[in-house]
Amino acid sequence: MSDCLFCKILDGEIPADVIYESETALAFRDINPQAPTHVLIIPREHVSTINDLDEGHETLVGSLFSAAKQIAAQEGLADDGYRVVMNCNEGAGQSVFHIHLHLLGGRLFNWPPG
Ligand code: DGP
């Protein structure tokens, strides 16, 4: 998608602090971190929201969680714990319409979330 910010990061048009790459996913540090570690994990395929996922995306979505597990270990978060969040649409706080997992760690998190 030519007007998608995360597609531009995937294409190298916009720089990002990339910390993980696979055949299906890319992960980079959030520009506005909400925790000492705040990483965004995105699929290489453009999918706007969770509502646009279908059965054909199951492996792709699984690969985002595999990436989260690997990055959490890499960042030293696995034992203390970390949070993985995907917002869907404005009401839940989605502002970039290319699905992404937020991986947050390095501090305590409240539940329920705000
Ligand atoms: P969400 O609000 O769930 O759609 O999350 C979008 C996240 O993307 C938000 O935490 C800020 C981050 N973000 C927005 N623009 C950029 C950018 O240009 N670079 C990086 N690294 N992160 C960005």
Précis, in short:
This protein has helices at 5-10, 58-74, and strands at 18-21, 25-29, 37-43, 82-85, 101-105. The chain is of the alpha+beta class and 114 residues long. 2'-deoxyguanosine-5'-monophosphate (DGP) binds at residues 5, 14, 16, 28-32, 40, 87, 93-96.
Element layout with pairings:
Layout: H1 5-10, E1 18-21, E2 25-29, E3 37-43, H2 58-74, E4 82-85, E5 101-105
Bound molecules: 2'-deoxyguanosine-5'-monophosphate (DGP).
Residues 5, 14, 16, 28-32, 40, 87, 93-96 line the site of 2'-deoxyguanosine-5'-monophosphate.
Please give a structural write-up.
It is a single chain. With about 110 residues, this protein is of the alpha+beta class. It has one domain: HIT-like (HIT family, subunit A), CATH 3.30.428.10. The longest helix has 17 residues. A five-stranded antiparallel sheet has the order 1-2-3-5-4, covered by helices on one side. A hairpin with a 3-residue loop joins strand 1 and strand 2. It starts with a helix and ends in a 9-residue tail after the last strand. Helix content is about 20%, strand content about 20%. 2'-deoxyguanosine-5'-monophosphate binds next to strand 2.
Descriptive key words:
114 residues, alpha+beta, HIT family, subunit A, 5-stranded antiparallel β-sheet, 2 helices, 5 strands, binds 2'-deoxyguanosine-5'-monophosphate
Number of helices: 2
The level-1 CATH class: Alpha Beta
**What structural category arises from helix and sheet content?**
alpha+beta
SSE succession? HEEEHEE
Biggest sheet overview: 5 strands, antiparallel
- Write down the overall mean pLDDT: 97
Query: What is the global morphology?
Result: globular
- Poorly predicted sequence stretches spanning 5 or more consecutive residues: none
Terminal residue distance: 31 Å
Total strand segments? 5
CATH topology, by name, is HIT family, subunit A
- Going by CATH, what is the homologous superfamily? HIT-like
The fraction of residues assigned to DSSP E strands is: 15-25%
Helix content: 10-25%
Bound molecules: 2'-deoxyguanosine-5'-monophosphate
Number of domains: 1
Computed Rg: 14 Å
Biggest sheet: strand arrangement:
1-2-3-5-4
- CATH hierarchy: architecture: 2-Layer Sandwich
